[in-house]
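Narrative of activities, Objective 1.

The group set out to show that a structural description can be obtained from nothing but a protein's sequence at a throughput compatible with the screening campaign. Below is one input-output pair from the validation batch, recorded exactly as produced.
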Amino acid sequence: GAALLGIAAARFTRLARAGCVSPVTFYLNRYRAVVWLYLADELASFAAREPELLAGRTPLGMRTMLEAG
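Output recorded for this entry:
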């Protein structure tokens, strides 16, 4: 997802945790790590709809929510 949007993996993780993008499904890989799958079309439409979230500082409200857990 991060590569498709052209952003860092950490930023993509924060966007996903904030609920900006929703996974379609998930599975456990052979190392027992959870792998989340996202639709490429949904990621592209999110990037077109919310370009300000892909660069610069994370908005204060979203930052506060992520820090609170």
